[in-house]
């Protein structure tokens, strides 16, 4: 059986699809990865993105949330407690919105680059 060219990892990341065929579901839950692709039977055991997605999302969201809160307080003269509450809402919203695509992106890049765990020979 032949498969079309590997889909773009960015496309696979945002659609949550298999990196080989682009059709099967990558995730079985919010962040849980299926054991195998239902379409092309790709073994997804290689898909271990570790803490990478969380690190990138925390870095991006932390910067945006702090800038948002500082802007609310300094420019719009919002009370600090309200600014912090709004900052927490922005932080949670962005985190939940970005975490799944970030994990899919890293899994897609692992597949494209044939990345695996380091080993000594």
How would you describe this protein?
The chain has one domain (9-112). Helix content is 52%, strand content 0%. With 121 residues, it is mainly alpha-helical. It has three helices and no strands.
How far is the N terminus from the C terminus? 33 Å
Summarize the biggest pleated sheet.
none
Category by helix and strand content: mainly alpha
Low-confidence stretches: none
Count of structural domains: 1
Helix-strand pattern: HHH
Query: How many DSSP E strands?
Result: 0
Question: What's the gyration radius in Å?
Answer: 18 Å
What portion of residues belong to β-strands?
A: under 5%
Form type? elongated
Highlighted features:
mainly alpha, 121 residues
Quick synopsis:
The chain is mostly helical and 121 residues long.
What's the structural blueprint in terms of helices and strands?
Layout (H helix, E strand, L loop, with lengths): L8 H7 L36 H23 L5 H33 L9
Helix pairs in contact: 1-3, 2-3
């Amino acid at each position: 059986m032949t498969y079309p060219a590997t889909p773009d990892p960015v496309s696979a990341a945002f659609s949550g699809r298999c990196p080989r065929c682009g059709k099967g579901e990558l995730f079985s839950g919010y962040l849980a990865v299926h054991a195998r692709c239902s379409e092309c039977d790709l073994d997804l055991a290689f898909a271990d993105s570790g803490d990478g997605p969380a690190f990138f999302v925390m870095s991006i969201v932390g910067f945006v949330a702090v800038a948002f809160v500082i802007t609310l307080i300094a420019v719009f003269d919002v009370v600090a407690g309200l600014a912090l509450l709004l900052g927490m809402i922005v932080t949670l919203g962005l985190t939940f919105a970005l975490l799944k695509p970030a994990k899919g992106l890293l899994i897609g890049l692992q597949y494209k680059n044939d990345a695996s765990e380091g080993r000594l020979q």
